[in-house]
Amino acid sequence: MISDQMEWDSPMYAEAVAQFENVSEVMNLDDNVRERLKRPQRAMVVTFPFRRDDYKEVDTLFGYRVQHLLTMGPTKGGIRYAEDVNLGEVAALAMLMTWKCAIVGLPFGGAKGGVRVNPRGLSRSELQRVTRRYTAEIINFIGPEQDIPAPDLGTDEQVMAWMMDTYSQHAGHSVPGVVTGKPPELGGTIARREATGRGVISLLPSSASHVGMNVSGARVVIHGFGNVGRYAAIAATELGCSVIAVSDISGGVYNSNGLEIAKLGKWVDENGVVEGFGGGDVITQEELFALDCEVLVPAAVGGVLHADNASSVKARIVLEGANNPLTLDADEIIRDQGGFIVPDVLCNAGGVTVSYFEWVQDVQKYFWSENEIVGRLREIMSRAFQEVLAIAEDKKVDMRTAALIKGIKRVTDAKLVRGVYP
Fold it and tell me: Per the CB 3.0–4.6 Å rule, which of 101, 158, 263, 407 could disulfide with 108?
């Protein structure tokens, strides 16, 4: 069993707090506000029984839901299923979600949740039991005006459908707005699945213009081929880029002439992983990061680029599709080498932006066309990028610091206006 001290002392939480502290110094943030924003406003840890299909034994699983900030409106954030989920990781991601929502101007505070379980080792019925019981355990903690979960690592549309159904059964009527990222049949928005990946690549033209690089023909390397990496690859090819390497948990594939993304997608649909795809050469994760390319998109998990491997990165632009894929050391090393980094709190905000659209549509019972959704997403992402870039140039800071300045200032202003109760 993991102790409370170990729960809070996760490397990701330490990174998130250190990042916040660094920016607070640059902003000369009021000490009272600083102390308040360092810690989540609410954190729930639950344990619950889980039985396998054979019913020979009943396991005990840990579940989490953290709400970092309630000042801005309902809280918003994903649910992840993974073997290494812990309270510190979830708290860190909730904090990052607060800044992310504030940067793009959404009326949400940040939240995050998860269950410590390996979803790949579960049957469909086992996954459903885990989801429904976890939802029941946190049911008084969530709601369309309180806290709105969404998919994350190890979860998907189906998991959100089960969460929505469980909540609705307890409420006695259908409540589609309790989650986002659910199937369109239940009030999900059309473009949610690809929103994060497409949002990431939507910032490539502006980034390329800033560094004086042509987008057409740019070589793109993508770490991760889930929803984010896959749709980032599709969007990059639509811009005329050449996606030369992709990897996932099973391994990677490299083709200097460009991978056929449609064929790779079909292979993954049929086999579940990138490994074994015959459209290129086998490549390791570390070899992938060191490839000669113009654009690198780390779109899988946190902390994959760090002090030991960041110096091998040759990309001119790094678009952070995952949450916290670069440690602070890696960020500094890559920038010192001349790389331009678009940070996760801005770069992967397309997912929560389209989740916001879905929530608005569920609450209003009025649904938009796909063209409206994509157009509004691009508008919001482009505006946020230009605002962050203006702060970076004015304050002479990097894009991560500038984005956090924008987000933290918006949250700080809201807290000061609301005051302290009682």
Answer: 101
